[in-house]
Amino acid sequence: xxxxxxxxxxxxxxxxxxxxxxxxxxxxxxxxxxxxxxxxxxxxxxxxxxxxxxxxxxxxxxxxxxxxxxxxxxxxxxxxxxxxxxxxxxxxxxxxxxxxxxxxxxxxxxxxxxxxxxxxxxxxxxxxxxxxxxxxxxxxxxxxxxxxxxxxxxxxxxxxxxxxxxxxxxxxxxxxxxxxxxxxxxxxxxxxxxxxxxxxxxxxxxxxxxxxxxxxxxxxxxxxxxxxxxxxxxxxxxxxxxxxxxxxxxxxxxxxxxxxxxxxxxxxxxxxxxxxxxxxxxxxxxxxxxxxxxxxxxxxxxxxxxxxxxxxxxxxxxxxxxxxxxxxxxxxxxxxxxxxxxxxxxxxxxxxxxxxxxxxxxxxxxxxxxxxxxxxxxxxxxxxxxxxxxxxxxxxxxxxxxxxxxxxxxxxxxxxxxxxxxxxxxxxxxxxxxxxxxxxxxxxxxxxxxxxxxxxxxxxxxxxxxxxxxxxxxxxxxxxxxxxxxxxxxxxxxxxxxxxxxxxxxxxxxxxxxxxxxxxxxxxxxxxxxxxxxxxxxxxxxxxxxxxxxxxxxxxxxxxxxxxxxxxxxxxxxxxxxxxxxxxxxxxxxxxxxxxxxxxxxxxxxxxxxxxxxxxxxxxxxxxxxxxxxxxxxxxxxxxxxxxxxxxxxxxxxxxxxxxxxxxxxxxxxxxxxxxxxxxxxxxxxxxxxxxxxxxxxxxxxxxxxxxxxxxxxxxxxxxxxxxxxxxxxxxxxxxxxxxxxxxxxxxxxxxxxxxxxxxxxxxxxxxxxxxxxxxxxxxxxxxxxxxxxxxxxxxxxxxxxxxxxxxxxxxxxxxxxxxxxxxxxxxxxxxxxxxxxxxxxxxxxxxxxxxxxxxxxxxxxxxxxxxxxxxxxxxxxxxxxxxxxxxxxxxxxxxxxxxxxxxxxxxxxxxxxxxxxxxxxxxxxxxxxxxxxxxxxxx
Amino acid sequence: xxxxxxxxxxxxxxxxxxxxxxxxxxxxxxxxxxxxxxxxxxxxxxxxxxxxxxxxxxxxxxxxxxxxxxxxxxxxxxxxxxxxxxxxxxxxxxxxxxxxxxxxxxxxxxxxxxxxxxxxxxxxxxxxxxxxxxxxxxxxxxxxxxxxxxxxxxxxxxxxxxxxxxxxxxxx
Lengths: 940, 172
Description:
Chain A: Its cofactor is FAD. Chain A: InterPro entries: AhdA1c-like_alpha_C, ARHD_Rieske_2Fe_2S, FAD-oxidoreductase/Apoptosis, FAD/NAD-bd_sf, FAD/NAD-binding_dom, FAD/NAD-linked_Rdtase_dimer_sf, Reductase_C, Rieske_2Fe-2S. Chain A: Keywords: 2Fe-2S, FAD, Flavoprotein, Iron, Iron-sulfur, Metal-binding, Oxidoreductase. Chain A: This is Rieske 2Fe-2S domain-containing protein. Chain A: It comes from Arenibacterium halophilum. The complex is a heterodimer of chains A (about 950) and B (about 170). With about 950 residues, chain A is an alpha+beta fold. In chain A, β21, α7 and β22 form a beta-alpha-beta unit. Chain A is flat and about 100 Å long. With about 170 residues, chain B is an alpha+beta fold. Chain B has helices at about 10-35, 55-60, 75-85, and strands at about 45-55, 70, 90-105, 110-125, 125-145, 150-160, 165. The longest helix of chain B has 23 residues, at about 10-35. Chain B is globular. The interface of A and B includes residues 716 and 881 of A. β48 of chain A pairs parallel with β7 (about 165) of chain B, so a sheet runs across the interface.
């Protein structure tokens, strides 16, 4: 035993939870656990990182770098990636000060230790489900099925275990079945799921800061993940005379029981509301032999939901079953005699039911500040996750928002309860369920079953087909089947589902003909499918990027058409490269070769480097000075504005040959692009519809851009050109990925360019396409001891012999010493301290791109400043200390995709910021923002 | 730098002798780089040596940037250290070839001016057939040391191969 004094008061350790100390040259970690102090080595046994920067939970510390887990008390490594235990040291407290025995304890876990530690680590997470309905129950079931091993607590308002709701308006209402038949869980299933079911337990509020739900009686229940399955409630109506009668609503088992009794006792039943629930209740009343009237304010049934034809057919069916329909009828009052309409007539009734829809129960979520939809409901993404990454919403209360189009959809159906719960349950267990399903809904009416697949809308056109039973196909504007409403032809319904998924235009006459085989109505050739059907983005949404976005030629061609040749400004060169009239450089817009040239009026023109005669790329020199461009093949010549100036033998020879009389040279210039400039940078666009550059960039991006292009004349210092073996988007992504900076670029950390404590930001413009990765270098004095210690922790003893390369000479109107700006799609403006440059992306197909770098300084630079910029240039470029690593990483990524199939990338870091600017470097929100924009532009 | 007492002559015999020395020097230089002994590489240079790798495009237009730009031996050491200790890149073999050595002059202070063509072949695990990575010309200045050996006081590698395949990880 050789106890050494640490000079650290025990109270300080208890206060901090974890503290780093150095004793006898040993880097130790002190942890406070249950009032006791433990000491371990502080450097992870796996890779170089400090455990005191990690996360302490359940008596274990998790290394910040790769999540290696050690038991603090025993030092035992808890499984991959750590295999070697961490040393532990005896601790004693003397007069409130911590002493540590610098002789490590004998082999912590080596001699047996706890065998259990090698088993799967225990899951201490707590899942709480608010709402004990079908969706809540299914979420619990799926989370368990997918391997969630923490505790699950389900809280329900009602005294009943979870049950399915469709029978409430059908067989249960008629007394044919009991509530027990509708239970979601089989006998013993809840126990097998280790589900704590707390019924008659309403929730009062959600405390998101504390991650706890507060129950009606004040008890709080902590959660790590929360599912809101609070469902919907019946929409109520305020009617004069309501106090004189019982107005029945139907939502839960209690309602159903009361309504069932009332129906049996009644003679004449009036249903207010001509939707599916109203029709089901009318159907139930008729089944019990009662008279039934449906009152609907709209001029026809289901006016907002269905096109006219199926709705009218449904009305006909109802009338055939002796249901009286009062359409376009308002209710003036209700009373013991019945329902009086606004036209003064009274419909006699001794049982009045109101079925006018449901309202999502989003009050808890709203009060907790979760994002909710204007029309009600909790907004969720494709994994049914709400705006708080720890909270999911499923079933009737969830509003699925499309991450790209922003379209919102809330669905009340048995199918959606299950599917949404499956998605949430899978996500909670860490196994997101990919894929949605074609929506499906059924209603039992008048002894038959109506089924709907797809998404019907009132404005769709309908094709009726009378096969075994009537079927209505709803078609969109492109004659594609969007939905199908079926009254008993199961075969047609299956075919419809297939047609909806395929998304192919269909022939109306063939569809209507009962002799057509619906399964063969389409051409099976996949090539006929529209691009958005063949390239379906992963259902999980922006959290994933499919490999085909990087590897597919057809996608690439669409990028050229829609992005590089679309409404974008593309960097083509610097004004300083063409100072004199006639000066030109060869450049590119996307992959398309162009020429940038200064004309005699002083203007800069950009046109395609493609002869309008036979397509030859006529300008062959990288740069130069000329009075005209002459295509070498047939000597067609163009002036400095791209106009066709001369066509040899235009009039033929000896009156023979030559161009026809209709040939007009002014119609045959080379393709000219729109050009704009800002402080010496020249941009071109194929599109006349692109907004001015200042609007294109936006105010925030312009600030960073202008810090480099500040109006001073530029001096070109030279170029680098290299080919990268990856998809072009990986480059902007690399500069929207602050996560990689300290992990890939050891140099940055080793030599103190980027350390914890540096001010940094990942700024994204409102459109999601442009961005600036920015950091501010601290001067030596401003780096705290703590951060210096951290810097040392990575590589001890490495210093630069000539540290001038790392000097930052302040010269910019900017709070940042480094900005890497992506100007979508193909420009990177580099300001790495004092080394300045632009990088232009020239894609060569999906799997490769060329990068052209132009390094520059300012005209008023001193010779020493120019040399400083050149010295600092060692950081970047194809041989740059940082640059070469990015090039290699991008190649590795493309290799990974090309040598496998059908994969997708995971970009989930920082879920609290779905897309856009993040304040932490540990974020992929900027990549998600870029793909949101990309998908909008690509229509995918 | 020249400390030799004998007067400097620039004649055919002196150039021929210098050429042989340079060829031996470059053979050793290539071996060090081909073996990956990166931290020995700065030892081929004088303390105030200038080293630059640049494209012919830049060189012909008087543009000063370099893929690698070092103003002294300290910066060469820093590059060797940083590449050896901090850089991430895929495993590869590099093979340097230097031919067509020409001594273009011997200056009155003894500085030997020379040029030599070079090619760099890069072989990657996923590209076992290898590929031409750079082809170009070295523009060199040598200083003879007291022990008669040579050190580079300047080496400018000018490559014709305009497009660098992916990255240049080691010097040429």
